[in-house]
Write a structure and sequence with these properties.
Elements lengths: L1 E2 H15 L3 E5 L15 H5 L4 E3 L4 H13 L3 E5 L10 H9 L1 H4 L9 E5 L15 H5 L5 E3 L4 H13 L4 E5 L7 E2 L14 E4 L4 E5 L3 H14 L4 E5 L2 E3 L3 H11 L2 E5 L7 H13 L8 E4 L9 H5 L5 H11 L4
Parallel strand pairs: 2-3, 2-4, 4-5, 5-7, 6-7, 10-11, 10-13, 13-14
Antiparallel strand pairs: 1-8, 6-12, 9-11
Helix pairs in contact: 1-7, 3-4, 8-12, 9-10
């Protein structure tokens, strides 16, 4: 059995063994093993020139890593939280995402930006923002939001090997989740969704932490005689349109669960894709079940009201779904 944080650690370790040009950079990633434990043991194994502790300056160490990627190195940039990466968003978008195009294909940026993204209980408004929509809108980036340990390990290995900048959006609440061991050498495609549960009546689509909500809802709905298909979106950019449309065409009833704000969100994009591709085949309009359109409250009671639960999903399904 393996926890998500250990799956990430294994992936980074294996890729650092595989290629000397891979290195880790960020705050507290060295001797302390990272504030979330993802880089545990790497400093002792590879030394301070491949596991670089930095000052508290996201703009500074991100710019350094981008320059290194121009010259053929493969940096893994850790942010303590993606909220702090707002300090370096200019480097990620202007210096990374656009460089291959603006250099006429001459300069690539093989770099991974990773760290915890989105909701974490008790962290307030400034540490819980979901950035899937921010980076998913940018041409030149590849963006993934994994759920299982298998996702995290396979996608991290693929991201490190990719010649494009990859935004790797983890969720801190998933780090301790335990799954079956992941095979050595396993690599997962960056542009493919995963069907976690096969069903025939409805489709539940989640991304990152909201996949857990979908799986919990599917169990309750199954007990009510409703067969739910659960899609773990994984790929934010490029988004797996084929998997989304195929499931929508099969069940004809789609519910998208997203912890992010409802406006300009992944749920909005998925809904648009389905309505544009198979509107006349749907039995009901796509339903979006999203976080509330407010900054995350610090109050525990208000926080619980701000994000979708499996009961919200079940209620939405029972309200709109009619057995055909």
């Amino acid at each position: 059995m393996i926890a998500v944080r250990d799956a990430l650690n294994q992936a980074i370790d294996e890729e650092m063994q595989r290629e000397e040009c891979v290195f880790v950079i960020g705050e507290e990633v060295g001797a302390s093993g990272g504030c979330h434990g993802v880089t545990e043991g790497l400093y002792c194994k590879y030394g301070r020139w491949r596991v670089l502790d930095t000052p508290i300056s996201e703009m500074g160490f991100t710019g350094l890593a981008v320059g290194a990627s121009y010259l053929g190195l493969r940096p893994i940039v850790e942010f303590m939280t993606w909220n702090f990466a707002l300090q370096s968003i200019d480097h990620i978008i202007n210096s990374c995402a656009k460089t291959l195009y603006m250099s006429g294909g001459m300069i690539s940026c093989p770099i991974v930006f990773r760290g915890p993204n989105g909701f974490n209980p008790g962290y307030g408004a400034q540490h819980t923002q979901d950035f899937c929509g921010y980076y998913g809108a940018v041409p030149g980036l590849k963006v993934v939001a994994p759920y299982t340990a298998k996702d995290h390990k396979g996608l991290m290995k693929a991201a490190i090997r990719d010649n494009n900048p990859v935004v790797f959006l983890e969720n801190e609440t998933l780090y301790d989740d335990v799954y079956e061991d992941v095979a050595d050498g396993y690599v997962q495609a960056l542009d493919r969704a995963v069907v976690e549960v096969t069903g025939t009546d409805i489709t539940l689509i989640g991304v990152s932490i909201s996949v857990k909500v979908c799986l919990e809802a599917e169990k309750l709905l199954r007990a009510k005689g409703i067969s739910g298909e659960v899609i773990n979106l994984v790929s934010v950019r490029p988004i797996d349109k084929q998997a989304i449309v195929a499931s929508a065409m099969k069940t004809r009833n789609v519910f998208v669960v997203d912890y992010a704000w409802p406006s300009f969100s992944i749920a909005s994009e998925v809904s648009a894709i389905i309505h544009e591709s198979c509107f006349h085949s749907l039995h009901t309009p796509v339903q979006r079940i999203s976080g509330k359109d407010i900054p995350t409250p610090y109050s525990e009671n208000l926080e619980k009201m701000s994000f979708p639960t499996h009961l919200d999903v079940v209620e939405a399904v029972m309200r709109t779904y009619k057995k055909q």
